[in-house]
Structure formats: C-alpha cells, structure tokens
Amino acid sequence: MTPITTHTALPLPFSVVRYLRTMKPFSVVRYLRTMKPLTTAIALLLACAQPALGATTARSTGQGQRPGSLPLVAITADTALNARSKVPAHMVVDGYNGPIGIKLRGNSSLSFNQKKYTLELRDSLGREAHAPLLGMPAHDKWVLLAPYNDVSMVRDPLAFQLWRDMGHWAPRTRMVELRLNGDYRGIYILAEAISRDSARVDISKLKKSDTEGRQLTGGYLLRIDTYNADDATFPSKVPGIGEGCMTSQVTWSCIYPKKKKLQPQQLDYIEQFVDSVELTIQSPHFTDPQWGYSRLIDVPSFVDYFIHTELSLNADGYKRSAYFYKEKLRADGTGGKLVAGPVWDYNLAYGNCNFCNANKPEAWCFEGGSTQPTPALWQRLLQDPAFRHAVKQRYQQLRLGALSDTAITNYIDRHAQLIAAAIDRHFERYPELLVTEEQKRQHAQQQATAATFPAMPMGGAFPPMPEGFTGFPPMPTGSEGFPPMPEGFGGFPAFGGFEGMDMIGWFAAYRVCSYDEEIATLKEWLINRLAFLDKQIARFDTDFEPHIQQPVEKKMPAFGGFPMP
Question: Reduced to 3 states, what is the DSSP secondary structure of residue 219?
Fold first, then answer.
C-alpha cells in the first residue's frame, strides 16, 4: 500500500484517509479515538486540509468531474522507467489499488521536465487486467498525458470533447494529480488509450484465422505517425506535400492488430486497400459517384476530421498522430469503408506552437508544413466541389452548437475552474512555465525575428546549448534512422533537460505571466480562428480556390551525423 507522508515522515495509508472522508463527523471522532494522539492529528490534517496534498474529495463520474480538488494518482515503481518497455509498478487511485506496467511515452516530449506515461493495468500474475478508472469504462490500456507545454492544460481535453460533440468516439479524460515514488509531478490528464474495444474504437475483432473473404476486410486501426520496429508499417504510394520538407514519404502503421498478431494476408489486404483509397483520390475520376473516392471512405467522418483539424490549426495536423479505422464489410456488401479519426495529441494546437504557421489564425493545415510531409489526399478532396459543399454545410451547422463561440469558451472556463485548486501546486513544481513581463517581451521579440525562418521551432535554429556541449553523437554514413539506443535512453543530451535549457520557449508561440492570462489568450485566439474559418468556408461554394501543391517524390539524403566542434 502506498502511503501519503507528512513532514514528520509518519505514514498514514491513503485508504484510511479516503475512508475518513466517507464518514459522518461523529463517526470520524469515534474512529479516531482508537488511534494514537499524534497519528490522530495527522489523520485530521490529511482528511480536512487535503487541498495541500492533492487527494480527492469529489468522485469522477461518466458525465465528467465536479470542480474541487483533483483525484490523486500515486504510483510506486522499484525499477527505473524507460521509453522502451513497461516496468512493473503499483498504482493507487480512487477505486483502484493494484499492479500496473508503466513506461515513458512521447518523442520530443521526452526532453520535458514533466513526462508522459503509458499505463497497463495488470493482475497479480502480471497479466493484462481490465478495470474502470475514475468512472471511465473498464480497460487495461491507459495514458497519463503531461500538459507541460500547454500552460492552459485544456487543449487535449478540449480537442477530445469537440470530437465527441461532433458525434464520434474520443478518449475520455480525467484531470488528476500525480505522485511518482512519493514525488509530486503536477497535474496530469488520465486518458483512455486509443484501442479497439466496444467502448472505444468499436470495430470487429480480427482473428489470426481471418485471412480470406469478408472476414479479412476488418477491422483495422491505422495511424500516420512516427514508428519503430515493433510497428507493422507500409509506405504511401502518393508523395506527401509540404514546402521545405526534406522527404515526401508518408508512412502508415497498422496498430490493430498488432504486428506480432497481424498475418501476412491481413497486412497485404489493408495496404492494398489504403493504396486504392489514396490513388483513387488522386485519379482523374476521383469525383465519380460510382468509381470515385466516396465508395472507399466514410465521407462524413473525413468532413468532420477536416473541420476539427483546421479549427485546431495543429502543427502536427494530418501528418502525426493521425488515426483511421477500417470497418468490416457487411454481409449485404455495404460498409467496410475507411473512417477518419479518432483524434489525438493536441498540446501544440490552438495557437500554442511557433512553427508550421500554427500560431497564425489565418493559416491552413491542409497546405502542409515544413517539418514532415502532409498526406496529399486532403488538398485533393478540397478540389471536389461536393466535398467543399459538405464541409460548408456541416461547419455552419456545428457553429450553431458544438463549435459556437459560447460553447467553446464556456468549456474552457469550466475546465479552468475544475483544476483551480491544484494550479498553484502545478506551477510551484514547474515554475519555468510562467515568465516575467520582461521575459515575455523578449520571447515575443525572438518570435518576430524568427518569423523569417518558419521551418523549425525558434525560426529554424536549435535552442542555445548548455555550456560544455560538444555536439550530437555521430551517425553511421548512409544510415536511414537512429541506431539502437541504450536501455532507458530518453533523448540526445541536448534535449535531455540540461539546466538552463528553455524547451518550453523553443516550441511556444507566446509566453504568459499567469494562468488567467493563458486562458484569456487561448480564448482570444480561438475566437479569431473561428472568425477566419467563418469567412473562408462561406466561400467554399463560390470563389474559394485551395492552394495546391503537386505531390512530388523527394527522398531524404543519407545522414552522416551532426558535425562535431
């Protein structure tokens, strides 16, 4: 059992504290009479002065959380965490007290002071075990998202809620506080992982024996993102777009079934199906009602995904953490189409990021950026008047409800109220998230100077390196990827959290001096973004002409390593 400790180092099990909070005052007094005087005092402090310690007084429900103190997640791990494999640990949170597997997650975020974690609930024998968490449906796969570079701590929950409000499944979330091995780690977003399940991505189970006929047609869960050797991948047959990208290669991953269970016939089938989708969209007859793209994709989901992504102006939009799923063909021959979604990873969205035009309310995501290639299918779909008309109708409908200014700003305000009791603790743990007025002015000046180099964060330059930095490790000439890294590797030294490294400033479009200022800035940006979309999408039936880049194959040159001083 993981104890909460006080400055006197006398532990009191959290289960006892939780039990005390369920009792009536008279019962508490009677219970405390059985305890020693000093322990009684500690118990009263923990039960009554709880906000300073981060435990919960309000239970989460399937309908959301009530304002007040946030649930505490306490994790104890005897083994050092790494980004490769889960290590055994123990987790205590309201309603769950048991074993888990845990590992670090993320890419650039591995350099942040606040880490993200993948969780797997387990039984006493170390096997996967389903259980509900804080009112969310039972499953074994969960994620602790760290809102480190999102000072508002609302961007991911907002993106998920908007996708749900548009009629789709998105990960449910609960705002929590985390203690890892007794160390307070701040506010986190406990979220469902994207996975196949009747309560998540509800597609048919694909068995190893499903290798022919209708059984072979689904379900599949796909993603466009970074990948590793554990992923079943295949390259797109259509070059991606993006001015300034070093390569045009877009890579798809099949994440359900997993590579170790995916049969060769199944991988061949889904690769050929995706090829058909992308090549049909690029073909001269792509708008044909009988032979065009509409027979292969679920058009309403693509319409919604376009609207959702463009509203967010996500720097990773369409090209990273982009999920799709393929349904099984029905017995009557209908269905079996490619569906866009669910949505994931929006901490760099809604004006928070300083590259790929992601901080400019008047930019478009579908035009691509200069970090990674954007699938060309989105700009091609916009060349179809019928698709643009569907976008216009759907967008204007959503503006009357889920995407209205009032609905969005009210959600942000409710979220800010929800976490209000824990905000000070979070910023005390990560004081670098807020800056002085002078630091804010300097950052704004840097952004203005860097605007002429939009390819990378901070205008195409790496952040200032710490004193004594001697360069990145060399790479073998001709290598197509990074060499195997040692166990526990969390990033190159320059990105590993040296003191003085301003990783937040490197990505941030702006800095703020207070949480209230961040919330006001976010709401103002969203109002401006919606006004831009209102004006532009109103023209989708008339004189709107999307900026088109021809998909041209570009290969990344052989990488021989960063130069050493």
Answer: coil
Closest CA to 430 of 183, 190, 189: 183
How far is residue 384 from each of residues 136, 314, 380, 545, 546, measured CA to CA in Å?
40, 23, 7, 11, 10
What pTM value is reported for the model?
0.82
Q: Are 136 and 172 in contact (CB under 8 A)?
A: yes
End-to-end Cα distance, the chain: 51
Residue 48 has φ and ψ, to the nearest 5°, of: -100, -35
Mention every residue, 6+ apart, whose C-beta is less than 8 A from residue 271: 234, 252
pLDDT, mean over the chain: 83
pLDDT at 64: 57
DSSP state of 57: S
User: According to the model, what pLDDT value does residue 66 have?
Assistant: 64
Whole-number pLDDT of residue 58: 30
d(CA 383, CA 33): 76
Contact indicator for 368, 374 with CB cutoff of 8 Å: yes
Q: 3-class DSSP state for residue 222? A: strand
Instruction: Map tokens 């760290």 to a residue.
Output: 146
Distance of CA 181 to the CA centre of its chain: 25
In single-letter form, the type of residue at position 82 comes to N
How far is it, in rounded angstroms, from Cα 221 to Cα 201?
8
Q: How confident is the model at residue 12 (pLDDT cuts 50, 70, 90)?
A: very low
Q: Which of 301-305, 403-407, 552-556 has the lowest mean pLDDT?
A: 552-556
Q: In this structure, are residues 194 and 139 in contact, taking their beta carbons and an 8 Å threshold?
A: no
Q: Which two tokens stand for residue 551?
A: 């998909």
Quick check: 250 and 266 in contact, CB under 8 A?
no
Concatenated DSSP letters for 397-437? HHTTTTTSHHHHHHHHHHHHHHTHHHHHHHHHH-GGGS--H
H or E segment to which residue 26 belongs: helix 25-32
DSSP 335-390: B--EEE------TT-TT-BSSTTTT-TT--STT--SSSPBPTHHHHHTTSHHHHHH
Question: Closest Cα to residue 176, out of 5, 61, 56, 18?
Answer: 56
pLDDT digits (tens, 9 = 90+) for 484-515: 444 443 333 333 344 456 778 888 999 999 99
- DSSP code of residue 265: H
Name which of 50, 60, 51 is nearest 174 in CA terms: 60
Q: Residue 87 has which token pair? A: 């290590």
Q: Which of 254, 222, 240, 225 minimizes the C-alpha distance to 342?
A: 222
- Alpha-helical (H) ranges within 78-216 are 155-165
Q: Helix H segments across 82-232?
A: 155-165
d(CA 34, CA 19): 15
pLDDT of 214: 97
